[in-house]
Amino acid sequence: MNPLRPTNGTSDGDPVDGFRRASLLKFFYVGIGVKRWLLIGALGIGVCAFGLAFLLRKLFALTFPDFLPSHFEGALLLAVGLTAIAVSLYGLARSVGPHLLGAGRLDSLAESIYVRRSRGRGPRIVVIGGGTGLAVLLRGLKEYSDHISAIVTVADDGGSSGRLRRELGLPPPGDFRNCLVAMAESESLVTELFQHRFSKGTGLDGHSFGNLFIAALTEVTGSFERAVYESSRVLAVRGQILPATLDNLQLSALLTDGTVLTGESTITARGGQIKTLSIEPADAEAYGPAIDALRRAQIIVVGPGSLYTSILPNLLVSGIADAVRESGAPTVYVCNVATEKGETDGYTVADHVEALRRQTSHDIVDWVVANDRPRPLGSEFLGIPVVFDSRFIEDVRVELADLTDPEHPVRHDSARLAKAVMDIFQGKRGVRTQLRSVVQASRL
Prior knowledge:
Structural class: alpha/beta
Strand content: 5-15%
Distance between the termini: 51 Å
Largest sheet: 7 strands, parallel
Helix content: 40-55%
Radius of gyration: 29 Å
Order of helices and strands: HHHHHEHEHHHHHEEEHEHEHHEHEEEEHH
Oligomer: single chain
Strand order of the largest sheet: 3-2-1-7-8-9-10
Shape: elongated
């Protein structure tokens, strides 16, 4: 039973009064952080009472009646002081509480404090990716922790982001905007405003307001990373959104037929079997705070998102993949629930993992989270469900669960995916070290 679930009061007496009493009691639940301060306040008043008593005795030679032993004098003062505190708090709650905090507001406040405290003690999570998939995961994870770092690709060169990138010379803001909205404290009118896309107007058609907002803040503050930070403050984001690199990144894909494609939008539009992916400049420098976040992480999540155009561009940046492997945190790869036309046609879960390893290293991930209930896709979707074909994936543990969003069968469900990731963290802490030792021993 959820201790924060509203009740309708007791069967006897006023139900509203019963509900208020239940709401007040919620402030004393474990983890909310109210009891400790009340106790400290009570102790402080008690100490003051003792001090005042001894002061009066010294100044005026006052004594208590002889019917009490002398060592009970302090205890009596303390009891009187605590009683006064309890009476005053009860009276304050009865007289002021109903006016400032109605029954519903009081319950909401108690639950809000409880959730905030729980999230404040959450783990340090680092998520690597881009596109819609990353935002979906972040929307679920923010319910578990305030210490989330999203490392976002800067290789996008299409749509509104591509236009701003070419015209203003700043990193593509689209994926950053999606992450900001996903990690916002609440889905308010401001978040809707950030996602608003203009449908007409010379120069405005196709642009989203959030992209223009970040671009304007970049000019005002003088740096893209500062603009993202200030946007986070506007949306009350708890956590941080970091670029993988500040270099002007370009993607190149070598297809199995020998064709070389340059540019993220060109790769996705042309399609074909990708043999290898590369970035230009090849020695692009990783963003320092992103490396720091990986080193401090308690769990690292790679994906979901487009394998070749959202995930791998981050891991190919010099230092990112090394920081993932050296972090000591369990690393989870979230496999897409559907293939992507022109990138992963016909890929199974094992194919995704093999491609990830081929471009980075064999020990890049410890866990794979995959969907075990593929849903049929309508004719409007170009991909097909990614299946787990039971092929053995060496040195990796696979977690299968129903992860599909019923309304969008090509996407994950935020809550289900976040729960699968947190279940791994809470029950399998330290997996990386255990797996490494087993693998190394088997190779000796």
